[in-house]
Amino acid sequence: MAGLTARGREAQDEYRRLLAAIEKQWDKRFGEKAIGALRQSLEKLVGEGGAQAPLLGASKPYPDGWRATKPHPETLPYYPMVPHRGGFSDGS
Prior knowledge:
This protein has 92 residues and is mostly helical. The chain has a domain at 12-68. It has helices at 6-30, 32-46, 54-57. 0% of the residues are buried.
């Protein structure tokens, strides 16, 4: 079983605070109606999250490919993206 440390809980609280502040700024800048429509569109992609997320379903591998033999992920990946020019986004 895994859980957040005290520092992890603080980071999670800070994330939620920042998210709420950003959404308030966007509501003021773009209007609540536009941001509400954006949220609805994005929620359709994410659904309830986890393995049932429609967005994750779009990552289903080609049936004859080697990835089809691997277990389907339960979450979207979280790692640095390697752009088409090579190297990592941090310049390394």
